[in-house]
Specification:
Number of domains: 1
Structural class: alpha+beta
Radius of gyration: 14 Å
Strand order of the largest sheet: 1-2
């Protein structure tokens, strides 16, 4: 794995594990555009909606005393 990407991935995973909205916001481009498909319904969103989604997810994890876990495949 490229060393530069690995450094980014480590920073990203640290932000994710610690539910740091500030750190995630710093990592995501202000020009970010995303698409989610749930039950056949397509929803397009941009940076602000993405950050709101992260905030809801992080709050859910904290409120339910949960933690994220991940497995990185090489």
């Amino acid at each position: 794995m490229d060393n530069q990407f690995r450094k980014f991935l480590d920073i990203y995973l640290d932000a994710w594990r610690s539910s740091s909205l500030t750190a995630i916001s710093d990592l995501i481009s202000n020009n970010y555009k995303g698409r989610e498909i749930t039950g056949g319904e397509i929803v397009d969103f941009e940076f602000e909606e993405s950050i709101l989604g992260w905030e809801k997810g992080f709050n859910f994890v904290k409120e339910n005393k949960m933690q994220f876990s991940e497995r990185v495949h090489k």
